[in-house]
Predict the structure.
Amino acid sequence: MPIEWKEQDGVFHLYNQRVSYLIQIVHGKYLAHLYWGKRVHTIQPNSILSFKGRAFSPMTESKDPSFSLDTLPQEYPAFGNGDFRSPAYQIKTNDGTTITGFNYDSHEIFQGKPQLKGLPAAYVEEDHEAETLVITMVDSKLGIGLHLYYTIYRELDVIARSASFEHLGSNEVEIHKCMSMSVDFHHSDWDWLHLHGTWARERYIERKPLIHGKQSISSARGASSHQHNPFFALLSENATEEYGETYGVSLVYSGNFQASIEVDSFETTRLSIGINPFHFSWLLKPGETFQTPEALMVYSADGLGGMSRTFHRLLRTRLCRGMYRDKTRPILFNNWEATRFDFTENKLKDLAVIAANLGIELFVLDDGWFGHRNNAKSSLGDWVADRKKLPQGLNGLAEYIQSKGMKFGLWVEPEMVSPDSDLYRKHPDWCLHVPGRGRTLSRNQLVLDLSREDVCNWLIDTFTKVFNSASISYVKWDMNRNMTEAASAKLPPERQKETAHRYMLGIYRVLETLMKRFPKILFESCSGGGGRFDPGMLYYMPQTWTSDDTDAVERVKIQYGTSMVYPAITMGAHVSDVPNHQVGRITPLQMRCHVAMAANLGFEMNLARLNKKEKMIIKREIGFYRQIMDLVCFGDLYRLLDPFKGTDSAIMYAASDQTRAVVFYYKTLAMPNPPFLRLKLRGLNSLAKYQINNDERLYLGDELMKIGLTIPLVKSDFFSKVYLIQQMVD
């Protein structure tokens, strides 16, 4: 059984073959955290917790002077009853105070995993895949129940956590803070790692030692953001890609979040993640329940690589959904860089002919197809095809694309509205705004108020018509600005701080409805590139446009950082024109292809300008990608060389049965008179024989992993090489 209840000790033991998580009920009411880490088989709980009276730590239990909440490692701590560290929650009661007293009441253990109403979450396909513990705490004075959810998977080293507040009393309360999880570690000898950035430079890796006090990352932008991804990890000081303990936590949420770490004076570490409490509150009335988003917790004894591979398997197979979950994705062409807004139907058809001849499988029509959208200043909200550009509408173009053997895809930006649009002129109150105050523009647009049911219903109806208007196989769903004036004309004053979270509940409802109505459409999320690359969106759309930066050198870093949490099958990656329009760099077409081939391959360039040689290169690389795309999409990732630490970078995808693998090597800058580089591989069968790129020579897996693969010396910047490794059977 993955969850055991040892009543005599008051201990819950969640475990599988590799991981244990231990909770103890102390003094019959407090929930203490004992342990999270490598599987343990025998437990002496009284030897785990140590108590000692500390100066200025209040004595919580009168009969036990050594006991204080200020020093107790806890599961879901409060503030105000003796613990001076950051709380997991805070509730304002009808008397204006924020003092609560939740004590253990009961628990339930069952097979399977419950879904969260209105929120994305990891799932199981069969109940036997996981087991769930629900611990109920009660504040009898308030009449509120606190339900703490823990699900542990049998075959994945993952624990999913969330919390819900159920109001069974008579007076309404305000929730001001509600983390999805909190864990107290017994020491502070950790590094912490997170993914930071900005537009066109997302998910750069930063690792540094913990310091005393608080350190945190967050977003208050109304989206998970380009600046910080809703993920962070604690690592043992010696942890590497292959070795050492790693604890990763990712939030299944696409809005404002906060992830924080606090080290106290006794060297204990408190880790928490959840909705950002800044500018958040939720009015909870009698009979209502508030559910937090889900946190996914991964333990790895095999370093960062082990953590990432667990996240990849979980997100790919038990978070992403739909018919494309287990399928390789079509190789696409997007017309944006070729035409921008300036296109005609004939120009698109000319590009389609070239794309089809190159072996491209999906033609995507980007911005500019609707309303009077000749620039970025108008028409968002007016989702009707522009007959001046498309005389036969979307359906006429889609039929032509299909006649060339390709599928048809479409770009949309449903969550936004242009002030210069018929929709805005008809419904100026439908955007986020504060009456009587200015409305801040970004990219010449405003944000529709998806906390409103009527706006969500309009979106569902409008895009049901759009997606039914032609044979559409793919939709790129964009969001090109963050929230300002995050208030709603529909909410009363006491609920205005609920707007951002209600927006997320609204967009999730819209996506769930459209996904069910159009199960054959492959949805790709986008927010100016990777501004909403998070598990919450992947629950509805199984891939994300990784970044608006398509420069090959920068993309090596961006995709490497993204791989800390997200599998390659979730990353959209395009080959674009040079000089690159973000950095002005000129890189070889082959390297641009090799970088994009390490994820879901696409092209976003002016195909009409390609010469004969360039077309041959693209056709060749598309042909090769078809040989390896199953490895990229479904293989186990091994990061071999870190682009943040030098000019060489390498990653590897290996089949789970160790019969095949593909290695991508990139060099950004050449060195005079360089040393030889031997690239040590991973994930192979040490005793099996392998062939590389159809060369006649054979290599033992043991040789490739311990001695390595020799990289050729080249006198060239921006060099790349791909190695296909295949096991040979005697």
Summary: The mean pLDDT is 97. Residues 4 and 13 are 5 Å apart (CA to CA). The longest strand covers residues 173-185. The two ends are 43 Å apart (CA to CA).
